[in-house]
Design goal:
With 360 residues, the chain is of the alpha/beta class. Helix content is 37%, strand content 16%. It has two domains: 17-256, Aspartate Aminotransferase, domain 2 (3-Layer(aba) Sandwich); 259-359, Aspartate Aminotransferase, domain 1, CATH 3.90.1150.10. It has a seven-stranded mixed β-sheet, sandwiched between helices. The protein binds pyridoxal-5'-phosphate. Pyridoxal-5'-phosphate binds next to helix 3.
């Protein structure tokens, strides 16, 4: 089999090798069933056991109480951008959006189709290189939406945004879900595409408070109502069975590696090491403000586009893949999700050191 290389992709991103190895076995036959995981009926006993284990582990690892429903949906986080206002906003109401990057912008743009929106804070003035210190919510907002980690700009909320008591707080946690402890009870809904920290693309985790499910509008297509998926345990139609299976394995891996506290320690160690190098470098510079830096996506530049391009080439030659920054910001981005090993961070630093010695 081909050798694995250091994969800094922003998503789909690196997954734990033991998870992939276990999945490889079960692709051909799930346990001793004689049928591969992708070939089992979602209504059959074998898959139902997989589903139940995944759901139970998701709750255990995330500390999710019975006040919440765990859903496995399709359409990515982008579908949630539309489903949320479609269900919970109306033309005479206002939803608050905290705008900290391109993904929060996209979420807000969808909401405008269904009602009014209020921008409670924005860091657009400095190309989203920081997390705003203050948030000004509107009175009686239908809900307040924020993006916990800004994948493109390399910033992250390190404390929860301060919103009025009783707010219906909704979080797009696509790029830092289960990377650190999370207080689910402070949220009404948390959603995340799986393809960064939890599994393959094609499945979206939605953690939604029971009372919110029933508040959703009823005049929507069946598939676009949360209550449909809730009543049917995510099996109103054929669910993304392989994604749910793999997510279950990832939850098991997280649990075996210290749970969310373990993930945070692991992620902090990687991010601290990389930022420490960037802070002393004569050539490379981190782009996000210090107090807003992401532990998941480390964005940096040399200050010279041509040199950035040269560095990415040198990194690719050294088997470091996926370091090119998002097309809207340029430079470099090292995505170091849960499953990314610290040895890969050391490999990146070694290549940066060598490049710096040759280019300064
Ligand atoms: C924070 C965030 N939100 C939403 C999305 C969109 O996710 P999807 O492609 O699953 O629709 C992404 C994708 O990278 C993201 O990083």
């Amino acid at each position: 089999m081909a050798e694995r290389i250091w994969n800094f992709s922003a998503g789909p991103g690196v997954l734990p090798v033991p998870v992939l190895e276990e999945a490889r076995e079960n692709l051909v036959s799930l346990g001793d069933s004689g049928i591969g995981i992708c070939e089992h009926s979602h209504r059959g006993k074998a898959f139902l056991a997989v589903y139940e284990e995944c759901e139970a582990l998701c709750r255990e690892v995330g500390g999710i109480s019975s006040d919440y429903k765990v859903l496995f949906l399709q359409g990515g986080a982008s579908m949630q951008f539309g489903m949320i206002p479609m269900n919970f906003l109306s033309s005479d109401a206002t939803a608050d959006y905290l705008i900290t990057g391109a993904w929060s912008e996209k979420a807000q743009e969808e909401a405008v189709r269904f009602g009014k929106t209020h921008i409670a804070c924005s860091s657009k003035d400095r190309n989203y290189c920081y997390i705003p210190k203050t948030v000004q919510c509107s009175e009686n907002a239908a809900y307040v939406h924020y993006t916990s980690n800004n994948t493109i700009f390399g910033t992250q909320w390190h404390r929860m945004p301060e919103v009025p008591a009783g707010s219906t707080l909704i979080c797009d946690a696509s790029s830092d879900i289960y990377s650190r402890p999370i207080d689910v009870s402070k949220h009404a809904l948390i959603y995340a595409g799986a393809q960064k920290n939890l599994g393959p693309s094609g499945v979206t985790l939605v953690i939604i408070r029971n009372d919110l499910i029933e508040r959703g509008h009823k005049d929507l297509p069946t598939m676009l109502q949360y209550r449909t998926h809730s009543k049917n345990d995510s099996m109103y139609n054929t669910p993304p069975t392989f994604g749910i299976y793999l997510m279950g394995l990832v939850f098991k891996w997280i649990k075996a590696n210290g749970g969310l506290v373990g993930m945070e320690q692991r992620n902090r160690a990687k991010a601290d090491r990389l930022y420490a190098f960037l802070d002393q470098s004569q050539l490379f510079k981190a782009t996000a403000d210090k107090d807003s830096r992401s532990q998941m996506n480390v964005t940096f530049v040399t200050g010279n586009e041509e040199l950035d391009g040269k560095f990415i080439k040198a990194a690719t030659a050294a088997k470091l893949d996926g370091l090119k920054g998002h097309r809207s910001v340029g430079g470099m981005r090292a995505s170091i999700y849960n499953a990314f090993p610290i040895e890969g961070v050391d490999a990146l630093i070694a290549v940066m050191k060598e490049f710096e010695a040759k280019n300064t």
